[in-house]
Amino acid sequence: EVTVSLTRNLQLCLPNATDCCTTPLCVVETLQVLACRDALVLAHLLVQAEIYANSSFTGNVSENATVIPNQAFKPLGSCPCDLTAGACDVRCCCDLECTPDLKQLFNELCFTGVFGGDVNPPFDQLCSSHSMEYTPDWFRFLCVQSSLNNTPFLGYFYHGSISTPRVPSFKIPLQTSPGRLFTGYRQGDPIMTEENEYFAIPQQSMAGQCVGNAPVAYLQNFDVKCLTNLASYKKGLPHDVRINSGTGDFIKQNVIYRTITNMDKFKTKSESLHSAEVWCQNVTFAEHYTFIWKDKNIEQVNVTVFLGSLCDGEILTQRFTVKFLSLEITTPVEPSGNPGYQVGKLVRAANMNASDTFGSLNIWKPAGRGLCTSATDTPVLFGLDSFSGCLLGVDINEDCSLLRGNVTEKLDSLIRATHIGKRDNSSYSDLNDWVEVIRLDPFNSDTNVSTGSLKGICPDIPANLNIRIIFANVGAVQGIPRQEILAVQISFSTVIWQFQCGLICENSTSFLPITASVQFIEVPAQPPIPLTRSQMNYTEFDCNRNDVCWPQLLYPLTRFYSGEPYSQCLAKGLSLAFFVLLAAILSNPWFSKLWNSSLV
């Protein structure tokens, strides 16, 4: 750090003095700093300081506004490195405040490029430009002869227009033509209301939180639970909102209100209340929507609303369900608009070994402290990879064999199925509509399992349940992919459990985490065509691995080219071949001899 200071005082002339300075007093101090090693100068620095006397400006102030030039032909800032007003910026040779004496201090270290003042450099396509290291032979034929006032940086190539951002609206214009506003819903389309807005019901987002203004999609069922308290409780859409049926007509919701009798299933107390008077309010505990549909239209909407009292300090688990029922089917089964699975749909399971063939495939849904004793289960949804678990309390004197059996039993409780439906509309009476679950048990008769001779340590504990579902895209229905399940495998991963304790291990309980994961693996519907020996050995002819594809040299003449009719491509190809053959004949020496002899 170098500091230059002035030891004497600088003062202007007194008001009544006759011999006064025409310019403010100024002292210029120049300091040179050298960095040396073994009498060898490695670097040098010149510091010049101008110190003026304190004075106030007494001149005339111009009120003329600064004229901003047209940015299309002249840059707004001709010297971008000029950052300090009224002073010289070091290494900024285009700064007008820098005097020639100051520029000598950094004349060889000036900023280059646009920041140094070269705001309109010659571009590479200019004929007089020599910026490219390698200039091809055809550059003189294709270069641009233009002045620097019309370049890719300035001129007519840049207009400086500004795009005004548009704030997306929650309202969606369907059609402006008179008459019917809609031509029917397709699977996945948002349901609209009479006010041309989304029909929204609280749903669960990808982050696991509940979103209150989530649109309801056509033919997509869901069942969500949202946690709320009295302070954060918000009312949803009023039930008198009419819904667009899909043909331009509007239907009214059929609402039935009921009162919750057993509120303990929905409410939990978060803290003990010491106040004698507790504030309570009548809120919505659950809403069940049933949409009756036919083809692309909604015929009827039935809503059942369960009400109850929620007090301050209580946590409410709200439940919202949406189910679509076909008008031609009276029993509550899944809609069959697309027989294949869609993302978020329930994976259908069946237990063919029981009299009641209905089955389930679930994963853990922990609650509270995450213990397995209080955890519930949730069904597996198609296309959504999941990972969940819970904590199992284990004593230090736990028998390893009993522990393995207890863990296996809890994981087996999640899988109450022997078969999984290939499609969303698989029939329980047709065994061909189902695939058998491939189960890889953690232990069999040929496996030697260690009994665990050490206290508090048990090896080979099957604590991880792995569910792998293989599916494929087998077609499309009305443009929506049709996906089917091909195989399901269930396996277990073992861990070594060791009791964890603090200073004292007696009369304490350790926790063993047991998990369940679901992985969806997509495979092609048909096996890929195997590579030939030529494709494996001669990779330079493989068009998928190289930029130059010689087999496609005559691609426009092949049947694979679909840009033009094949007859036109063939005619153009024959014409091109004729001209090439004609050029080869005319360039041959014997043709010139024949032509000269014919003239003689």
From TrEMBL:
Residues 183-326, 337-523 form the Tectonic-1-3 domain. Pfam families: DUF1619_N, TCTN_DUF1619. One of its GO terms (cellular component) is MKS complex. Keywords: Cilium biogenesis/degradation, Glycoprotein, Signal. Residues 54-163 form the Tectonic-1-3 N-terminal domain. GO terms for biological process: cilium assembly; protein localization to ciliary transition zone; smoothened signaling pathway. Part of the tectonic-like complex (also named B9 complex). Belongs to the tectonic family. This is TECT2 protein. It comes from Semnornis frantzii.
